[in-house]
Amino acid sequence: MKTDILIAGSGCSGLYCALQLPRDKKITIITKSDLTSNDSYLAQGGMCMLKEESDYDSFFEDTMKAGHYENDKKSVEIMIKTSPEVVKDLVSYGARFERNEDGSLSYTKEGAHSTNRIIFHEDVTGKEITSSLLREVQKLSNVELLEYTTMVDILEKDNHCYGAVIRRPDGSLDTVTASCTVMASGGVGGLYRHSTNFRHLTGDSLAIARKHGIELQNPDYVQIHPTTFYTRRPEDRSFLISESVRGEGAKLYDKNMNRFTNELLPRDLLSEKIHEQMAKDGTDFVWEDLRTIPEETLRHHFPNIVEHCKEMGYDVFKECIPVVPAQHYFMGGVKVDHQSRSSMENLYVVGEAACNGVHGKNRLASNSLLESLVFAKRAAQDMAKNVFSQTDDAADCGTDSSITEISNTYAAANTADIHDTQITADYLASHVDLHQYEDQQALAEAYHHLATEAITLGANTANRKEFLYV
């Protein structure tokens, strides 16, 4: 199978990347589950944006402070300054955000933010954004979407990526050659006992990167969300009780219904406070009180949270709910530059699988969707400019004879390079030993080991074993 760009993942970063790529290129998007079973759909609270220039310094400082000042400053600058452009794109795709009576965007606030700067759609902002992107992608004739199709490895030689090995829905194995490959395969939640992530997101990008010597960055930087609905069943995906709930005034209580902390602390610090209180009380959870929020706000802004709690037997208008910290987000990942290029040529990584340093050691609430979109667009722009436009640029160099001669020489050399690249890709695809991937259970165990090892590498494992399946 041949394509121009292979994208592994159908979350917001993979879809937005596809929308920004040239329409004359064949794009193949594969996804491990169905098109909507990705963490982008689960994002509740909202997405940050630079609402006015006067908020830049504050937005920058809030992001840096939450990240313990380990953030890549240039990445933070790029993310913040690009946010209005991204929001404009989303609105043009039909994404609906809460509006004020005058039609202007309405902004909410979450933990560790110094002001309201988060746009939202009820408590399903991720679903609203990602479904809008998916609708647009499905309109494109140059994009093929393949569900239940997994990237099990990449095709590479001499630190150049030529495509991937994939497993199709029927279990059969195949190869896909591509000029560019984009990993948009999500996070690591499937490795954890308590996680808000889908269970099939098991850090495949980490495992494949380690296997091929691709650089990683801060793989031990894993964010624990302070408040997820407590369940005794380990197979359940932890249901997120959004940061926005505490931003609107929800309180946290110990077993004696006494408030024990500042609910708007950054996520890592608040998770520590909750774990300390659980240990002190000898409990598996603490209580969260949503009754401090006006009933109309709860019904309008958080309808899905209200409904989920009801399904679990709790009436948020009359009683507190049990909450527990859970693995939520992966700040580390495959190391990429500001154009989302990995250390391997023609392999891009975007979304939660990537680490461009924007989040530092701890992510600021509602920066995840924004970061994923901003750097997915930069990946697409880089591919369009530096991978696919070289021949066209040579052909457009003017009519002067000397320039034409130079450009023709350049174009011929570039065409030869493309031809050699395709020969290499075809050779790798035809000679890869597919038998090594046939045992799905053995491969999953090997990849889980590689990913788990990467996460715990250099970390204080004593503080992480309670979350990891180890």
UniProtKB/TrEMBL annotation:
Record's keyword annotation contains Oxidoreductase = yes
- Annotated NCBIfam families: PRK06175.1
Family that this chain belongs to: Belongs to the FAD-dependent oxidoreductase 2 family. NadB subfamily.
Q: Which reaction does it catalyse?
A: L-aspartate + O2 = iminosuccinate + H2O2
Pathway stated in the Swiss-Prot or TrEMBL entry: Cofactor biosynthesis; NAD(+) biosynthesis; iminoaspartate from L-aspartate (oxidase route): step 1/1
- The name this protein goes by in its record: L-aspartate oxidase
The record places domain FAD-dependent oxidoreductase 2 FAD-binding at 4-369
Give yes or no: UniProt keyword Lipid biosynthesis. no
Question: Entry's Gene3D superfamilies?
Answer: FAD/NAD(P)-binding domain, Succinate dehydrogenase/fumarate reductase flavoprotein, catalytic domain
Q: Which InterPro entries match?
A: FAD-dep_OxRdtase_2_FAD-bd, FAD/NAD-bd_sf, NadB, Succ_DH/fumarate_Rdtase_cat_sf
Q: Kindly list the GO molecular function terms attached to this UniProt entry.
A: L-aspartate oxidase activity
Name of the top EC class for this enzyme:
oxidoreductase
